[in-house]
């Protein structure tokens, strides 16, 4: 199992450690619900050093990524980022990504920990023939995030980066706690927040600095358990649950990611165009369980009275913010309209669940 | 590890406890189990009157992260269930040996409790 530079910090903070995508990571420190609420109400600090950081550089870096990914990275202004996907030739999703443009000829691609090797290999193959090179900096990079309404207030005194003028999905170079860093206004919680990419060995210093600067604001360390409930409330997909090789971006309601208008061919273009033309065969919906029980990953979804299942729950939990059981599920498009009543098979019982618009939670403006 | 294990209870390998009170017994989950589960958010209770075999699943405890079955420590009939847990599942965590009790059983075969662990054996099981 791999360890981030912060493992000893997690141990000292009393974290419960679990294996996640080959990494020994904190699932919780003081409790998932408490950590979840800390992020919604104040802010939380996360070790995300298990994520993959892939740098693509070279004269044709932009063109190479436009060929390799579903989005159009050359359209990004320097210092901006977008949500992207790398698709297989058949249109299935290999991973979802954030692509940051650091310079004219330098992009940072952030991949899920569990897909890092696959994405690196696939990108390397797709970059062949372009004047572009891939550097997998994942094991040289610590990623520490602070997310929540007080994130800006806590981080601002620690950095020279002008956070107030850093836009959502923007990135800037500077220092955090004296350490050279890339500071991005991105996250996976539905809150405002920042992600700090620093050298591997500097991770603990940044983590410590954020926790001490955040102490007066009652900022807490937050584990992967709350990260999952936070992203689920925010309606954000998780690879392996809502996204996978057997899923196209259209199935997941993320067809806007695919930029057919970009010049030139890209991997998956023909299959994705056909998928768009055909219309989706399944649709990702939000569910609120209107009975007793929690709909979990893999539970069957039925239309009322129907013997056969029509769909499957992809993620589900008790929403700490709403106090109700929430889930995401793939169902037939005919059953995807908000207000549709479905049933989730929870053990031996069919429990009613209502289709609702995503996200379940939107932060106050 | 400093985990609350009570001397006056019997334990299963699946972390239920049994407090024998004459011909009846009260069942709950241990402090260790509650701590491992994390925030308990849902408890599914059996019907009063249901007859249980030893080690039969009689309910479910769910935390934010996980689902966990409840196993009956002994054969018996459900006399009473703690309906307070429906609205306050967190009692399992905050008071596992008291207000967080789950069911009261009429014990069918008193001899069956010999297969349960005493406090020392349970402590050894969880490494406490």
Helix-strand blueprint:
The complex is a heterodimer of chains A (365) and B (128).
Chain A: E1 2-3, H1 7-12, E2 16-20, E3 23-28, H2 32-41, E4 44-47, E5 52-57, H3 61-68, E6 81-87, E7 93-103, E8 106-111, H4 116-127, E9 133-136, E10 141-147, H5 151-155, E11 171-176, E12 179-184, E13 193-199, H6 203-214, E14 220-221, H7 224-233, H8 269-278, E15 283-289, E16 300-302, E17 311-318, E18 325-331, E19 341-346, E20 349-356
Parallel strand pairs in A: 1-3, 4-14
Antiparallel strand pairs in A: 2-3, 4-10, 5-8, 5-9, 6-7, 7-8, 10-13, 11-12, 12-13, 15-18, 15-20, 16-17, 16-19, 17-18, 19-20
Chain B: E1 10-11, E2 16-21, E3 24-29, H1 31-37, E4 40-44, E5 51-52, E6 57-63, E7 67-71, E8 76-81, H2 84-87, H3 91-94, E9 103-107, H4 119-126
Antiparallel strand pairs in B: 1-2, 2-3, 3-9, 4-6, 5-8, 6-7, 8-9
């Amino acid at each position: 199992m791999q360890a981030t530079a912060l493992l000893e910090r997690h141990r000292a903070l009393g974290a419960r450690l679990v294996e996640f995508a080959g990494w020994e990571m904190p699932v919780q420190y003081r409790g998932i619900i408490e950590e979840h609420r800390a992020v919604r109400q104040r802010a939380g600090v996360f070790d995300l050093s298990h994520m993959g950081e892939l740098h693509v550089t070279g004269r044709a870096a932009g063109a190479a990524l436009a060929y390799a990914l579903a989005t159009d990275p050359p359209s990004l202004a320097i210092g901006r980022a977008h949500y992207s996907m790398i698709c297989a030739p058949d249109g299935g999703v290999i991973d979802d990504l954030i692509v940051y443009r650091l310079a004219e000829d330098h992009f940072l691609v952030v991949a899920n920990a569990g897909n890092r090797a696959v994405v690196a290999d696939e990108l390397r193959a797709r970059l062949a023939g372009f004047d572009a090179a891939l550097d997998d900096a994942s094991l040289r990079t610590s990623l520490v995030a602070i997310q929540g309404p007080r994130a800006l207030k806590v981080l601002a005194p620690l950095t020279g980066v002008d956070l107030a003028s850093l836009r959502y999905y923007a990135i800037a170079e500077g220092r955090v706690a004296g350490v050279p860093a890339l500071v991005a206004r991105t996250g996976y919680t539905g809150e405002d927040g920042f992600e700090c990419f620093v050298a591997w060995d500097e991770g603990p210093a940044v983590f410590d600095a954020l926790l001490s600067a955040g102490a007066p604001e009652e900022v807490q360390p937050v584990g992967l358990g709350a990260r999952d409930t936070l992203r689920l409330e925010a309606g954000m997909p998780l690879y392996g649950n809502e996204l996978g090789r057997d899923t196209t971006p259209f199935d997941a309601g993320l067809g806007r990611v695919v930029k057919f208008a970009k010049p030139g061919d890209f991997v998956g273009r023909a299959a994705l165009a056909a998928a768009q033309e055909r219309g989706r065969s399944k649709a990702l919906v939000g569910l609120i369980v209107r009975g007793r029980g929690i709909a979990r990953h893999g539970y069957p979804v039925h239309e009322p009275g129907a013997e056969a299942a029509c769909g499957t729950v992809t993620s589900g939990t008790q929403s700490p913010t709403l106090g109700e059981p929430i889930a995401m599920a793939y169902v037939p498009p005919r059953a995807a309209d908000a207000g549709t009543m479905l049933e989730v098979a929870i053990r031996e019982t069919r429990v009613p669940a209502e289709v609702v618009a995503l996200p379940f939670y939107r932060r106050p403006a | 590890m400093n985990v609350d294990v009570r001397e006056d209870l019997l334990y299963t390998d699946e972390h239920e406890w049994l407090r024998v009170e004459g011909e009846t017994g009260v069942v709950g989950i241990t402090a260790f189990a509650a701590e491992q589960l994390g925030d308990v958010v849902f408890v599914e209770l059996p019907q009063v009157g249901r007859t249980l075999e030893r080690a039969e699943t009689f309910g479910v405890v769910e935390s934010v992260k996980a689902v966990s079955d409840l196993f009956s420590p002994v054969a018996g009939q459900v006399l009473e269930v703690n309906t307070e847990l429906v609205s306050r599942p967190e009692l399992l965590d905050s008071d596992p040996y008291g207000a967080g009790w789950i069911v009261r059983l009429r014990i069918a075969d008193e001899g069956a409790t010999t297969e349960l662990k005493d406090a020392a054996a349970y402590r050894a099981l969880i490494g406490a």
